[in-house]
Amino acid sequence: MRLLRGRTLSFVSRPQARDDHQSYVYEEDGALLIAYGKIIAAGTYDSVIGQASDGVETIDHRPHLLMPGFIDPHIHFPQMQVTASYAANLLEWLNTYTFVEEQRFADEAHAKRLAKLFFDELLRQGTTTAVAYCSVHKGSADAYFAEAARRNLLMVGGKVMMDRNAPDALTDTAQSSYDDTKAVIAEWHGQARNHVAITPRFAITSTPAQLEAAGTLAREHPDLLIQTHLSENDAEIAYTLELYPEAKDYTDVYARYGLLTGKMLLGHAIHLSDREMGAIAEAGAIAVHCPTSNLFLGSGLFDLKRLKAHGVRTAIATDIGGGSSYSMLRTLDEAYKIQQLRGHRVPPIESFWQVTRGNAEALGLTDRIGTLEPGSDADIIALDASATPAMDIRMETVTRLEEELFLLQTLGDDRSVRAVYVAGEPVSVD
Ligand code: GUN
Ligand code: ZN
Asked: Measured from the CA of 202, which atom of ligand 1 is nearest?
């Protein structure tokens, strides 16, 4: 049994306004009691200490903020060595760097080495759950899930399905992508804390036969998440519509194959018509904002206000290696700036809801992660809003929680992540 003492913050619903105090629970002198990898009690220190057994190990994180670990619902495991590649746009970036680098994941030793480095980096950033694209090679998914299991991390991932418009060494076939995904599901889904996602890369790199296979997988495994890319870049959209002339629009390509469901994570979803937003909302699919990537590749500005007005569920993610930071704090900052340009100011409590409970809702995993509620897995981080001299001097004038959160998202990064617990166990973040 372990007791963490600190200022605790956990969301109960999506904040509806900047001062929506009903949307979260905050304890100035709070505590979390952990046993068997789960939070078993949460509340004020005085109330929680009464439930602890004698000899409980107490770790005092005051004055830091204890929050659920961050969730990154769109990231590419084989792209650690693609980040910071100089390109004019998405398709040039994919062809020049990404499709070259991902070929190296045919080598299992390389995949295993990078899997270790990948989770090291995520944890350093306070990200305790990610939804990752592996490469086309089944071995890359094996390396990813084996390492996640070794660390007892709750990770989601999928072997990428791609059978055209990429180098031969990086393509599968409709049949082999189906067979390999089936094998990955059989071997890894539900093993340790692993979750498998059906992962057709995007319409351009899949033949109709492969999207058909992905749709079959989705029907056979209705509990699994599905992830893909949607409407990121103008040239990508035009080419997609050439490849699928019968589709009404890009969103309809996925809908026609039975992929547009409440389990579908749609990376980017920037350039969408009203019809597409309506169809996505009706299906309950999720538009995943990837702000640093959208700015870095010059793809466009996510239209959060319009998506919200249509009732589309949203999430926020790094999209490493198109993205330029692994930090969910940096990601929130860039997202905020994008919405500023759109005339839509996002309150800091909404931002922190999004990277915790909000992203967990998108994954359908709020019973496991994203909150500090008793019964949850004990994936917890301690955040320090005075981590740097510039933050520390600004903190002198901060009096309210919302201001502190806004400071964390505006100036914070990995240096603010002072401690990370995975299923109740501390991990080193130095
Ligand atoms: N569209 C298809 N593949 C990718 C990828 O790897 N990164 C991004 N940002 N967009 C994509
Ligand atoms: Zn992506």
From this structure: 2
